[in-house]
Design goal:
Layout: E1 11-17, H1 19-22, H2 33-43, E2 48-52, H3 63-70, E3 77-81, H4 84-88, H5 93-109, E4 113-117, H6 133-153, E5 157-158, H7 164-171, H8 185-204
Parallel strand pairs: 1-2, 1-3, 3-4, 4-5
Helix pairs in contact: 2-8, 5-6, 7-8
């Protein structure tokens, strides 16, 4: 599948996953992740339309249903943000990674390029007690490593490979919204900036 000609039609972008994919915590709709990705693509001369099928609270097991909802629109690029709720609900990491891999495989089979933002480092969340942070960090890293392997095995791209986003959240509490868990509008700017290069890389790929 060749990269869509933005002059002929708008690129179709689907955003799947959890509350971050949905945009919970942003002060304004235009600050949510999908809107920021559309704006970022426009800065590169690419017109796009985004369909958000992400659901707050979703775990990886919910991705199969989200894929089914996204497929009728035949997205050119699918962005998946998933993992935080698997961590908070203690989903077995291998199960969560397998569900993610299956979602990537289904989207790729339907002709979409897929970009995944894997589990964040939840040890940076302000209300996590200091004594628990090492264990939370280890759990986050374990899930993330399995997710990366599953995504790459199915031909997807992984965003934020250097963990820059988690470090930014750990260093700047203003990136969190008032609930001290979801991103603020400023936080979504950081997340979108970490995802956009991978989306652009996906569009440069000659075949899906």
């Amino acid at each position: 599948m060749s990269a869509p000609d933005a002059r002929a039609r708008a690129l179709r972008l689907a955003v799947l996953g959890d509350s971050i994919g949905w945009g919970q915590g942003a002060s304004r709709p235009e600050d949510r992740l999908a809107a920021r990705l559309v704006a970022g693509l426009a800065d590169h001369g690419i017109e796009s339309d985004a369909e958000v099928v992400a659901v707050p609270g979703a775990r990886s097991t919910a991705l199969a249903g989200q894929v089914r909802r996204a497929q009728p629109a035949r997205p050119d690029v699918a962005v998946i943000v998933i993992g935080a709720n698997d961590l908070t609900h203690r989903t077995p990491p291998r199960d969560a990674a397998a569900d993610l891999g299956a979602a990537v495989r289904a989207l790729r089979s339907a002709g979409a390029r897929v970009v995944v933002a894997p589990a964040p480092d939840l040890s940076s969340v302000p209300h996590v007690p200091a004594a628990m942070r090492p264990a939370v960090r280890r759990a986050s890293e374990e899930l993330r490593a399995l997710q990366v392997a599953a995504v790459e095995a199915e031909g997807g791209l992984v965003a934020d490979a250097d963990h820059r986003t988690s470090r930014a959240f750990a260093e700047d509490p203003t990136l969190f919204s008032a609930d001290r868990f979801h991103p603020s509008s400023r936080g979504y700017a950081v997340i979108a900036a970490s995802l956009l290069p991978a989306v652009l890389e996906a569009l440069r790929t000659d075949s899906a």
